[in-house]
Design brief:
There is one protein chain. This protein has 460 residues and is of the alpha/beta class. It has two domains: 196 residues, Aspartate Aminotransferase, domain 1; 250 residues, Aspartate Aminotransferase, domain 2 (3-Layer(aba) Sandwich). It is 39% helix and 13% strand. Helix 8 crosses helix 12. The protein binds ligand F0G. The site of ligand F0G has 15 residues, from helix 4 and helix 5.
Length: 460
């Protein structure tokens, strides 16, 4: 925070979007009608929207200008060529397929790579990645190092994979493992970075067992900047050089460009190897679209090409990571338990610790999310036992998730530090009355990815 005072945002505001504050009574009514699920709210009823950093950021003037140059040709669009060049320049990969967003890449990739019964190890898969693996009959396996589950820590790289367990998994003759995924940064445990050292060693293990390693690289620039700031030997390298070094360790990547692409929609599926790229065509064309647009408008590809160049600028990233750390500091000062170090894209609150009287199966992070919304119109998202809990296959009983988090994800270049202060102040109020906050039960849910649409009611 002290550092935060030393400089200002490396941009000024050229276009504004009004947002409005509502009163508590209105919000109480709205959240009740929404089945106590923050996803069901209308954004007009939200003051500061920290539901996600995905597709919610502000584009630069250069990106808006690029939109006007978009070439909407079905095949061989000029904007596709510009995007391909930006991908080559930033990632180093020659073979790229545009997709409509990250899960589009997952759908194409899992369809071509996963067979029923396969095990898919990774540091910690994101929820849609888990969904796509399960839909193909595969088994997702999280192998994040034990430190990745610690809440308060000063470990600089809590997204690292457990290398011993990775090797054990790959050497287990009973398992069929088609590839390994490294998620950078690791969203599900707090936007935590993976070190270059860990990625190098994981890549060596994969090579030894002849398994390809792919990156889920939605937040690759944030990961690269953390490496620059925290890992020995990287201080003097540019973020782009670090990104190139990262991607050289793998065989390709799946990207939701709604994060570090600095755009509102879009995604990428990239390969080092031409034969896999050609194989992906068989799925890309029926699922996403022709190989030179894959579900993206030409103008969106043009904006993404520009976004990939902007996102690796150090001044941008220093401000971005600084704002998340600032919000974390404000909350820590107010006695709110958050994952430390702060992640790249937001702050993750430990609801288990903050609301200890709510049993995990009554969703304390969901309860906290509802309270924060009612208090100040701030919308976060539950990443706990609703999003990641599962049923025990033997008994059918609900098994809670290890972590019970409320995530406050910060959209890129969108909110100011004063907005962050509003969030912090809301917690002062909530802390004063937290003993009276109760849990929730689910009254309706889907089989897969239930948290998006589940409906709740207060317990008791
Ligand atoms: N992988 C990671 C690491 C993600 O964080 C996301 C999305 C996806 C894949 C899927 O990408 O949304 O473009 O289809 N994360 C968003 C979030 C939704 O809120 O964290 P998508």
């Amino acid at each position: 925070m002290r550092r935060r005072d030393a400089y200002a945002e490396p941009f000024r505001i050229k276009s504004v979007e009004p947002i409005r504050m509502t009163d508590r009574e209105h919000r109480r009514k709205m959240i009740s009608e929404a089945g106590y699920n923050l996803f069901n709210l209308s954004s007009d009823d939200v003051y500061i929207d920290l539901l996600t950093d995905s597709g919610t950021g502000a584009m630069s003037d250069a990106q808006w200008a690029a939109m006007m140059t978009g070439d909407e040709a079905y095949a061989g669009s000029r904007s596709y060529v510009a995007l391909k060049e930006a991908v080559k320049d930033t990632f180093g990969y020659d073979f790229m397929l545009p997709v409509h967003q990250g899960r589009g890449a997952e759908k194409v990739f899992m369809a071509m790579m996963v067979k029923p019964g396969d095990t898919i190890p990774g540091n910690m898969h994101f929820d849609t990645t888990i969904g796509h693996i399960l839909l193909r009959g595969g088994r997702p396996l999280d192998l994040v190092a034990e430190k990745g589950y610690e809440i308060a820590s000063d470990d600089p790289f809590k997204g690292d994979i457990d290398l011993e367990r990775l090797e054990e998994t790959l050497s287990d003759g009973k398992l069929s493992v088609p590839f390994v995924i490294m998620t950078i940064t690791c969203n599900s445990n707090g936007g935590q970075p993976v070190s270059m050292r860990n990625m190098k060693m994981a890549s060596d293990i994969c090579r030894r067992y002849d398994k390809p390693m792919f990156f889920d690289c939605a937040r690759f620039a944030e990961n690269s900047c953390f490496i620059k700031m925290r890992e020995q030997g990287y201080k003097d390298k540019s973020v782009k050089e670090i990104a190139r070094e990262t991607f050289a360790l793998g065989d390709g990547c799946l990207m939701s460009s709604k994060k570090d692409g600095l755009v509102n929609i879009g995604g990428l599926l990239c390969f080092k190897d031409e034969s896999l790229y050609r194989k992906a065509w068989e799925y890309e064309i029926p699922f996403e679209g022709f190989i030179t647009y894959g579900g993206m408008a030409g103008r969106d590809m043009a904006a993404l090409a520009q976004g990939l160049r902007e996102v690796v600028e150090y001044e941008y990233l220093e401000d971005r990571l600084g704002q998340a750390a600032y919000l974390a500091d404000l909350l820590i000062e107010r006695g709110v338990p958050v994952i430390t170090p702060a992640g790249g894209h937001g702050v993750f609150i430990d609801a288990k610790e903050y609301l200890p009287s709510i049993p995990q199966l009554e969703f304390p992070a969901q309860a906290l999310g509802v309270e924060l919304y009612v208090e100040a119109g701030v919308r976060g998202v539950e990443l706990g036992s609703c999003a990641f809990g599962h049923k025990d296959p033997a008994t059918g009983a609900e098994v809670p998730h290890k972590l019970e988090l409320l995530r406050l994800a910060i959209p890129r270049r969108t909110y100011t530090d004063r907005h962050m202060m509003v969030v912090a102040r809301a917690f002062e109020e909530i802390s004063a009355r937290k003993a009276g906050i109760g849990g929730y039960r689910i009254v309706w849910q889907t089989e897969v990815l239930r948290h998006f649409t589940a409906r709740f009611e207060p317990v008791g």
